[in-house]
Structures are given as structure tokens and as C-alpha cells.
Amino acid sequence: MAKPGKRFRAAREGVNPDKAYPIAEAVKMVKDRAKAKFDETIEVAINLGVDPRHADQMVRGVVNLPNGSGRTQRVAVFARGAKADEARAAGADIVGAEDLVEKVQGGAIEFDRVIATPDLMPLVGRLGKVLGPRGLMPNPKVGTVTMDVTTAVKGAKGGSVEFRVEKAGIVQAGIGKASFSAEKLVENIKAFADAVNKSKPAGAKGHFIQRVAVSSTMGPGVKVEPSSLLGT
Q1: How many CA atoms lie within 13 A of 81 on its CB side?
Q2: Are the C-beta atoms of 193 and 230 separated by less than 8 Å?
Q3: 81: helix, coil or strand?
Q4: Rounded to whole angstroms, how far apart are CA atoms 220 and 214?
Q5: pTM: predicted TM-score of the whole model, two decimal places
Q6: Would you call 2 exposed, middle or buried from its count of C-beta atoms within 10 A (0-12, 13-18, 19+)?
Q7: Of 34, 115, 148, 194, which one has the greatest count of Cβ atoms within 10 A?
């Protein structure tokens, strides 16, 4: 296994891998170590007490980050008529129906989020094998299958973040940029953790949020005290 580089070793100095820090302290440590030449993404990973192999322990949802994600999301909307016009007015980057299906089937995946009106879902369903593996399939549970396309589009463009538990029982997301103030990052992380906590499935037993870590794109992970996120 390759040894970590000199820059990464230097960034890791002062971080106790066995200690969980209060969220404000953890964020400061991550920001102080984000020294790349680009604006690094700040990421949070949460280990949950669930087994995603069981349908009643699936965790999925969406959260509107109070300070945005710092990313520019390209949003595609499957809609017709007045709803298509509404989507364009709300700032959607791509809007269409059969024509958009053909483009996607042809390999043109020029978007980061997909929204659809309910009447278009039979059409969008044809794209399951293309959009599903990329995590782009619209889903009413996360508000991406809706008649309220204005709210959905503005949320997607303004910093809403979808989350879904992975096979290892982890949910993770980018919740801001290193250029954000520590206060804004803390607010975003708390909002994300709160949304995950509220998504606890009925089948989950015992302690739900078990471990939390925050990191930057090129920096080391810093463990966080879960209680400092949820105010418990």
C-alpha cells in the first residue's frame, strides 16, 4: 500500500484518530488543513446502525442546506406544457419529455439532478437502467417526483442534498466548501445530521447514529462527537 504523501502527513498532524471532537472544533481542524489550490469540498460521513440489505432499514431523504452546498447543480426536468414552462422559469437547465428521453438513451447525461412530474414517470421509467446506477432516478420520497416543479428546481439549484445509505451502513455528502465560514459549515452539517436522524427507519434497532467524521477533499478525516450534532 502506498504511503501517504508529505502534505497529507503534515495535515494529519495534530489530529488524534482515536478521539471524537465537538463539531465546531472538528470543522475548524478540517478547514485549517484544507490547503489545496482549489476550493475543497467539505464532506460528512455518518455510520448508521442499520443493515441496508433489509428493506425496512433503508435510509433515504433530502435536506435543504441552510447555506447551500457551494456546488452548481445542473438540473433536468421531465415535464410538458405549463409545467415545462414553470421548470424553465425556475431555472432548470434542461427540460423535455420524449426528446429528453432520447438524448439520455443516447448517452447525453448533462445534469446532476433529475426532477419529473408524476404523469411523466412512465416515460422516465424507461431510463431506469441509465439513471438508476447513477443515483439520478426521480423518487417521490425525496421530492423529485412532484407537480411543484418550481420548489423542486429551486431546491436543487439552491443547495438541497440527497442522501442514501450505502451497503456498509454509511450516508455521506458534500455539505459545503472550505471557503465557507466555520459557522456556516457547522449549520449545514447539523442540518444534514438532523435530516438523517429524522429518517430513522422503523426497522432500525438500538443506537442509530453511531460514528461521524468530517473531512475535506484532500485532507484527513476528523471524528465528531455525535451528541454535538444533535444537541443530545
Answers
A1: 5
A2: yes
A3: helix
A4: 8
A5: 0.77
A6: exposed
A7: 115
